[in-house]
Amino acid sequence: MASKPHPPQTVIMLALGLGQTIAFASSFYLIGVLGDDIAADLRLAPTFVFSLMSVALAASAVAAPAAGRWVDRRGGRGMLLLSNLVFAAGLGLIGVAHGPVVLTLGMIVLGLAMALGLYGTPFAILVSLYGDQARRSITGVALIGGLGSSLGFPATHALAQQFGWQGACFAWAVLHLLICLPLGAVVIPRDLGGHMSANVGPPAPVVWDRRMIQLSVLFAGAWFLSTCMSTHLPRLFMAFGLSTAVAMSTAALVGLAAVAVRALEFAVLRRFPPLLATRAATLMHPLGATALLAFGKVAAPAMALGQGAGNGMLTVAKGVLPLSLFGPTNYAYRSAVLGRPAQIAQIGGPALYGLALDRSPTLALMGGVALCLVMFAMTFGLNKEPAT
User: Fold this and answer.
1) How far apart are CA 306 and CA 373, in angstroms?
2) What angle separates helix 100-117 from helix 120-130, to the nearest 10 degrees?
3) Once rounded to an integer, what is the mean pLDDT over residues 300-329?
4) What is the DSSP string of 175-227?
5) Among 113, 123, 174, which Cα is nearest to 16's?
6) d(Cα 248, Cα 262) in Å, to the nearest integer?
7) pLDDT score recorded for residue 203
8) Residue 129 has pLDDT above 70, yes or no
């Protein structure tokens, strides 16, 4: 019996991208908008509420490798659909919370949903469908998913203004159940192709060779710096003399640059080796930071654009480089293992960068530049086979 034809690649890419937009908006960027309201309403310290994002990231880091192994063996469709249910459950728990225990439990469940349903699983679905030719669709999903911050912040704020923070959580939960879940069930093929076929025996091991170590350092640095900037970039700009309003609006250029560079990758840069784009991406933040140090607050837009462009390109590299270097075998598990140091680095990043920023804005900037130069060094030698 012939298998049912797959939907067009563009349709699958758009569906997965929309799902990622909703997933990121309702998880990674949720507490940044609702944290103060939750703290005030539940009479909790704001620092406690905001620290729960670290708890969610820790839960995600713990669960991600097991989720990746499952996807490699059984396919990503079921995992992605399950993630919508877990997202809804986590958001529902947060919405009904009347104290710290249920609120913490809700954030842990939300972290588990992030492990199941954020970029790793959609990228694995695309690799399963298109194999070594998945770069274009991975870039497209990252491009659309990048709208999670640009649309998520104002959408969550508008929902909270209209329905309160509890209503905002329930609204995002409903979107997972009424949009993401049925859309994924209809669009994502049941037969995901033979590029990542399921194994009935023990899975092949993922060996930590030199290239794996270099990639893990590269992505850990990128995600550490990204989380630091998402938390402290407005404060950094204010330290260089910008007013609060101007600092906030200038920091918003990060999202614009990230989406723009992913569009450039989708249209042009995908014709070039992914390693070249990755190497260039590691230098974007240092260029912006150097401009800020040399010219002061007038160069703050350059800093924001450099950070956004570099981070946007590195998000695509996180999906493409493991495929380019190691092929589709064990792709989901390998990606999850590579991402675990990055997830752990995210947990402590804002606190460490905040200490450096309090001591000296210049020190904080130079620390970020030094980290990027380490990441730049990690891009060399990746195209060589490890010694046997």
Assistant:
1) 14
2) 20
3) 87
4) HIIIIIHHHHHHHS-SS--STT---SSPPPP----HHHHHHHHHHHHHHHHHH
5) 123
6) 23
7) 54
8) yes
